[in-house]
Design goal:
Number of domains: 1
Mean pLDDT: 92
Radius of gyration: 12 Å
Order of helices and strands: HHHHH
Number of helices: 5
């Protein structure tokens, strides 16, 4: 996991950050390491520090990863607001 993702998890999830990291490890094992940084950033962003929401977003990603990316990166329309190929630092999302 990239450093910015780990830092964002610690920042957003606080006391629940270990549970969130455990969820990432489970996801990584189930996907055989095929979950990329872009997807992880989108999932963490959408969860907004809520571990239950994080689990829901992970499940949504297993069903259709495009939904996760669309919800995280777009304004519910055609305009792209974020590109999670970039780090949380580059997107200036570390304090949000």
């Amino acid at each position: 996991m990239k450093t910015d993702i780990y830092q964002k998890i610690e920042l957003d999830f606080g006391d629940d950050h270990k549970s969130a990291i455990e969820q990432v490890e489970i996801l990584d094992a189930r996907s055989k390491g095929l979950i990329g940084d872009r997807m992880l950033r989108a999932m963490v962003f959408l969860a907004k520090g809520n571990i239950e929401r994080f689990k829901q977003v992970i499940e949504l990603g297993r069903t259709d990863y495009r939904d996760v990316l669309w919800q995280a990166e777009y304004d519910c329309g055609e305009e792209q607001l974020y590109d999670f190929n970039k780090t949380f630092h580059e997107l200036k999302l570390m304090g949000k």
